[in-house]
Write a structure and sequence with these properties.
Blueprint: H1 12-45, H2 53-81, H3 83-103, H4 107-135, H5 141-170, H6 172-178, H7 186-192, H8 197-202, H9 206-215, H10 226-230, H11 234-238, H12 244-275, H13 280-308, H14 310-327, H15 334-361, H16 368-395, H17 399-423, E1 428-430, E2 433-435
Antiparallel strand pairs: 1-2
Helix pairs in contact: 1-2, 1-3, 1-4, 1-5, 1-12, 2-3, 2-4, 2-16, 3-4, 3-6, 3-7, 4-5, 4-15, 4-16, 5-6, 5-13, 5-15, 12-13, 12-15, 12-16, 12-17, 13-14, 13-15, 14-15, 14-17, 15-16, 16-17
């Protein structure tokens, strides 16, 4: 089935509402995720809570471990109780956990706060991607997911300015109090975010789905996948049926390397740059440029993926990322370093997102949150390892090797998603639906 190049008029109001609310939720997700890396140089400088460089890496890994658990469980839970309930719960959880970090009196309590925040952060992102995918125009699915993920990097930019404008006069705790503010968004999300139409139909709540579709003049999805939705582990097992297990493992391995790279760089970029002799202001400017590049990259990669295929674009982007990250280990003039950081942000962040787009577009609606959640969750093992690795290298006074290690992770992801791109060069069928991950024109 070929998709139209123009998005359908029906359901556009509902799509805009869903994308807008999910965008704000992911903005807060990005703020909370990046805030630790942004305030870390200040915390290390004043020896806050007595943390060392090695402990700082461990603390970064606590959050990503929480994200691992959150992502692995969120997809399955969302496919059973609904995307909306889970999104609301996740925003509330990471906001309250940031409050715990703000009042912490020891490394242990701070680490608990970051772990709990990670649970919410890890659960929100794949759920929001699944929700947006349900309402995205078929010909603009990857672009819509890319647009959603610009919010994550807008949150990263916001975290740098929070660190620059608030931490200096008020201290590092104030930055985490700012991250409690999204708690005010929870009632808005609970009131206005609609549930996924595909989820409602798959769960047999057809009257509710029909009323929602009529209210926004949206098209009601066909009823299907009821049997799969009824068994707790059926959606996960679907990822391994037939020849799907090879593709699933390729996505998981690519996600592991991609998130090792993303979270390793996000956690340690300001600190590694300071170790290279840059001032704190310049180091935070790298965070802003990195995330600005992420926003630009999401839009470019999303449009290119809708045209040429998400796995193909992801593979190319990872190759370019590996080169950019490696260049950061080379001492360059400041202006040139700014350019390299920006371009690295363009390719790095959207390379990982296009893995999610590949999985989301290729999954049946009733199985989508599970597929994206487990791909994200398996990748979180890399997200746990990345910050820990950066901390160990920095503690051993081998900061330059951190960039090299991250570049190797990007190269590995390029290989895995590249193989996946070759395997999906022809349309395949899954759950009775045509799957086209690489566009044909």
């Amino acid at each position: 089935m070929s998709s139209s190049s123009a998005p359908p008029a029906r359901g556009s109001r509902l799509a805009l509402l869903v994308v807008g609310l999910c965008w704000l939720a992911v903005l807060f997700d990005g703020l909370d995720m990046f805030i630790y890396g942004s305030v870390l140089p200040h915390m290390l400088e004043e020896k806050a809570l007595g943390i060392t460089s090695a402990q700082a890496g461990d603390l970064g890994s606590y959050a990503t471990f929480g994200m691992l658990v959150g992502a692995l469980t969120a997809g399955t839970v969302a496919d059973r109780i609904g995307r909306k309930k889970l999104m609301v719960s996740c925003v509330a959880l990471f906001s309250l956990a940031s409050g715990l970090c703000a009042v912490s009196s020891s490394v242990a309590v701070f680490g608990l706060g970051r772990t709990l925040a990670g649970l919410g952060l890890g659960g929100l992102l794949p759920t929001a991607i699944s929700m947006v995918s349900d309402y995205a125009p078929r010909a603009r699915a990857a672009l819509t997911i890319g647009l959603l993920m610009t919010a994550h990097h807008a949150g990263g930019i916001l975290s740098a300015y929070v660190a620059l404008w608030i931490v200096e006069p008020l201290g590092w705790r104030a930055a985490f109090w700012v991250c409690v503010v999204p708690l005010l968004f929870v009632p808005v999300l609970a009131r206005f975010l609609p549930e996924s139409l595909s989820f409602l139909v798959a769960r047999g709540r057809t009257e509710e789905a029909r009323a929602l579709a009529a209210r926004y003049d949206a098209e009601l999805p066909a009823a299907k996948d009821r049997t799969a939705a009824g068994a707790p582990w059926a959606n996960l097992l679907n990822l391994f049926r037939g020849g799907e297990w090879v593709q699933t493992l390729l996505y998981w391995l690519a996600s592991f390397g991609g998130l090792l790279l993303v979270y390793g760089v996000a956690t340690w970029l300001p600190t590694l740059m300071r170790s290279e002799g840059y001032e704190l202001g310049s180091a935070l400017t790298f965070v802003v440029l990195f995330n600005l590049g992420g926003i630009v990259g999401m839009l470019i990669a999303g449009r290119a993926s809708d045209r040429f295929g998400a796995p193909r674009i992801s593979a190319i982007w990872f190759a370019l990322t590996a080169g950019g990250v490696f260049l950061l280990s080379v001492h360059m003039p400041l202006a040139l370093t700014f350019v390299v950081v920006f371009l690295t942000g363009v390719f790095l962040n959207s390379a990982q997102t296009m893995i999610y787009a590949t999985v989301s577009i290729g999954s049946a609606p009733a199985n989508r949150a599970t597929a994206v959640g487990w791909t994200s969750g398996m990748g979180r093992f890399g997200a746990v390892f990345g910050p820990w690795l950066g901390g160990q290298l920095l503690a051993a006074d081998k900061g330059d090797w951190g960039f090299t290690a991250f570049a190797l992770a990007g190269t590995a992801s390029m290989v895995f998603i590249g193989i996946a791109a070759l395997r999906t060069a022809r349309p395949e069928r899954r759950d009775g639906e045509p799957r086209q991950l690489v566009a044909t024109g």
